[in-house]
Specification:
alpha+beta; eight-stranded mixed sheet; five-stranded mixed sheet; 8 helices; globular; binds 6-O-phosphono-alpha-D-fructofuranose; metal ion binding; FBPtase; fructose 1,6-bisphosphate 1-phosphatase activity; cytoplasm
C-alpha cells in the first residue's frame, strides 16, 4: 500500500505505534515543536532574533538567540505533554526532572535544540536532533539519561532547510516527512528509508586532516586517488543534520574524527547527536562507529560527553575502521 502523502498522525495511527499512545503522542509533540521552531528559523532574518546573546552554553559555545528560543520551545512542548519524566538539552548543563505533581510519562528525551547553529546567520540548513529512552520509573534519575544508544526506543531529527523535514525511527523502519506549510501538516515522503550499502561521497572538515590519525588520513587519501578503484566526491555543509540527511539518502561516509589538539574525544556529543543519528543509520541499514567501537554500544558516563563519529553506509564505515586498525597495528 502506498502511504506517500499520509500525514504524520495518519501514519502513526497506521503503524504499530498506535498501540503505544505515549510514543505516538510524544512523536506528535516533537513534530509540533519542530513546526514552531521552523517558523522562527524561517523568519529569523526578519525580526531581531539573529545574532548572539553574548552568553556561552555548557559547551563553551557562543549562544545564538535562536538556540535559546529552540531550547525553550522544546521544553515548553515536552514538559506538559504527559509523555516524559525527564529532559536533557545541549543548552542546559543539568537535566530537567519533572516533579511528581507534573504530568509525567514513561519516556526521557535528550535533544540538541538547534544543531548547526553557528550557520544560522548564513541561512544554512540547521536542525533539531532527539533521542528517546524508556525510564526505569517516573522518578527518573541521571542513569535513565545515561543509557547505551542501543536502548533508544526512538530517535530522529527535524531539518530546517529548503523544506522542513521530520525524520524518525521507532524500531520499525526510518520514515521521512515533509512539512506542507500551507496546511501545517508533515506528509510522508519516504517510508522505510534504506541507506545505500556503499556511497560515493565523503563528508569531513578537511582543515583538520593534519591532526587525524594515520588510518583516517590513509583512507581519505585513497578516496581521492585519481588512479584508485573508487573516486568519491566531497560534500561538507558544517551542519551535522544536513550532512547526515544527505548521507542517509545518498550513502557514503560522514566523519568527525578525534583531533588531539582541538577535539581529543571528537567534537560531536554522544547522547543527543551521535547516538540518535546512529540509531537511525542502523535502522536504515547503515553503521555508526567511533572508529573502533559501535556508537550504539557505548555506555555513556556524562551528559555532554563527546565522541569521534564515522557514520554512513555500512561498507564505508567498515572500510575506514579497517584502515584505522591496520595503521594502529605494530609494524
Ligand atoms: P566544524 C555545528 O556547530 C556542529 O556542532 C555540527 O552541526 C557540525 O557537524 C560540526 O559542528 C561542524 O564542526 O569544526 O567542522 O565547524
Amino acid at each position: 500500500m502506498n502511504r506517500k502523502g499520509m500525514t504524520l498522525s495518519q501514519h502513526l495511527t497506521e503503524s504499530r505505534l498506535c498501540g503505544d499512545g505515549d510514543m505516538a503522542g510524544l512523536l506528535t509533540t516533537l513534530a509540533s515543536a519542530a513546526k514552531r521552531i521552523s517558523r522562527e528559523v524561517n523568519r529569523a532574518g526578519l525580526v531581531d532574533i539573529l545574532g548572539f546573546t553574548g552568553e556561552h552554553n555548557v559547551q563553551g559555545e557562543a549562544v545564538c538567540k535562536l538556540d535559546v528560543l529552540a531550547h525553550d520551545m522544546m521544553i515548553d512542548a515536552l514538559r506538559p505533554s504527559g509523555h516524559v519524566c525527564a529532559l536533557a538539552s545541549e543548552e542546559a548543563e543539568h537535566p530537567l526532572f519533572l516533579a511528581p505533581h507534573e504530568p509525567r510519562g514513561p519516556y526521557v528525551v535528550l535533544f540538541d535544540p538547534l544543531d548547526g547553529s553557528s550557520n544560522i546567520d548564513a541561512g544554512i540548513t540547521i536542525g533539531t536532533i532527539f533521542s528517546i529512552y524508556r525510564a526505569q520509573s517516573a522518578d527518573a534519575t541521571l542513569s535513565d539519561l545515561l543509557q547505551s544508544g542501543s536502548r533508544q526506543v526512538a530517535a530522529g531529527y527535524a531539518l530546517y532547510g529548503s523544506s522542513t523535514l521530520f525524520v524518525y525511527t521507532a524500531g520499525a523502519g526510518v520514515h521521512s516527512y515533509t512539512l506542507d506549510a500551507g496546511v501545517g501538516e508533515f506528509r510522508l515522503t519516504h517510508e522505510n528509508l534504506r541507506m545505500p550499502e556503499r556511497g560515493t561521497i565523503y563528508s569531513a572538515n578537511e582543515a583538520n586532516y593534519p591532526r587525524w590519525c594515520a588510518g583516517v588520513q590513509r583512507y581519505i587519501d585513497a578516496l581521492k586517488d585519481p588512479d584508485g578503484p573508487c573516486t568519491y566526491s566531497a560534500r561538507y555543509v558544517g551542519s551535522l543534520v544536513a550532512d547526515f540527511h544527505r548521507t542517509l539518502l545518498y550513502g557514503g561516509l560522514f566523519l568527525y574524527p578525534a583531533d588531539p589538539r582541538d577535539a581529543p574525544n571528537g567534537k560531536l556529543r554522544l547522547l543527543y547527536e551521535a547516538a540518535p543519528l546512529a540509531r537511525i543509520a542502523e535502522a536504515a541499514g547503515g553503521r555508526a562507529s567511533t572508529g573502533s567501537e559501535d556508537v550504539l554500544s557505548l555506555q555513556p558516563t556524562a551528559l555532554h560527553q563527546r565522541v569521534p563519529l564515522f557514520i554512513g553506509s555500512a561498507e564505508d564505515v567498515s572500510a575506514v575502521e579497517a584502515s584505522i586498525r591496520q595503521c594502529a597495528e605494530p609494524e
